[in-house]
Task: inverse folding
């Protein structure tokens, strides 16, 4: 009798404007892996959002899984991994972070590591380089995270987010590395004080569930959006259209080029329908907040 593990990982949006590299939110768009043990490694992709060409040794899930196994000094057995994804690559919806979280979970289950949620967050954040996307995919809900100078990761996780989001996905990619090159190396002190104050107000508004206020500060970022806006197709057009049709606020999702609007949950479907008329070349989706994070089910076959 063979055993199959199904791993489901939510995608995520990061920053929400000024919460740069520290605020993440899990979205109801998923990466799913079906994992079975076999004699040799094999990846099978079942989604247009995943690469057609597959080289096992270059696969992100394989590389991270091997890295995790080495870290914990365990022998990782070969697996067949069937992958299904609702997350387009290099669009600012946490596709790489979800793959990292999935790889950690794969090793956790097949090698019986028994990692708890904090350990998964710390490990995925270390590999990803910051805690926003990765921790949101692990925990679900809204995550605010920071790492102290001693390397200790601290997170605040709020599951109750009574609002919805609409994502504007263009048919172009933007690599995170390219988007980071657009940022200044340093910020003048007064400028940084204003930028961090806007981030503080964004987080406070989200935790108070004051989404009208949160939307204002989504659009007030000084850390990255002023420097990346020229890389994002229709940046000002989308913000203006969204605001005119009831969005609380709109920002770049992660490093972009996807943009995301905060909407009253009762109005999001009508909002998406209207936006699609204005932007027919975009894939525009309503996205609820995932509150479960990474999930594993076991099937015996």
Result:
């Amino acid at each position: 009798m063979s055993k199959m593990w199904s791993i489901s990982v939510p995608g995520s949006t990061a920053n929400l404007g000024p919460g740069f590299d520290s605020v993440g939110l899990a979205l109801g768009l998923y990466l799913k892996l079906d994992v079975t043990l076999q004699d040799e490694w094999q990846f099978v992709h079942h989604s247009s959002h995943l690469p057609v060409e597959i080289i096992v040794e270059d696969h992100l899930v394989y590389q991270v899984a091997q890295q995790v196994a080495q870290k914990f000094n365990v022998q990782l057995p070969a697996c067949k991994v069937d992958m299904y994804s609702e997350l387009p690559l290099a669009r600012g919806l946490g596709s790489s972070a979800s793959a990292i979280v999935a790889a950690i979970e794969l090793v956790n289950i097949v090698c019986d590591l028994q990692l708890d949620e904090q350990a998964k967050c710390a490990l995925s954040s270390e590999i990803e380089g910051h805690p926003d996307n990765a921790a949101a995919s692990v925990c679900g809900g809204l995550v605010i995270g920071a790492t102290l100078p001693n390397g200790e990761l601290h997170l605040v996780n709020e599951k109750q987010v009574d609002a919805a989001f609409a994502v504007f996905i263009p048919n172009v990619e933007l690599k995170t590395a390219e988007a980071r090159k657009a940022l200044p190396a340093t910020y003048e002190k007064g400028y940084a004080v204003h930028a961090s104050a806007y981030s503080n107000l964004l987080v406070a508004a989200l935790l108070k569930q004051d989404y009208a206020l949160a939307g204002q500060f989504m659009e007030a970022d000084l850390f990255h959006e002023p420097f990346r806006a020229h890389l994002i197709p229709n940046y000002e057009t989308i913000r203006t259209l969204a605001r005119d049709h009831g969005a609380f606020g709109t920002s770049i999702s992660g490093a972009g080029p996807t943009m995301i609007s905060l909407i009253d949950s009762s109005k999001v479907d009508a909002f998406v329908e209207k936006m699609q008329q204005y932007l027919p070349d975009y894939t525009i989706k309503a996205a609820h907040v995932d509150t479960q994070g990474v999930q594993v089910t076991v099937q015996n076959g």
Notes: Residues 204 and 214 are 8 Å apart (CA to CA). The longest helix spans residues 189-208. The chain has two domains: 3-158+290-300, 164-287. The first strand starts at residue 3 and ends at 15.
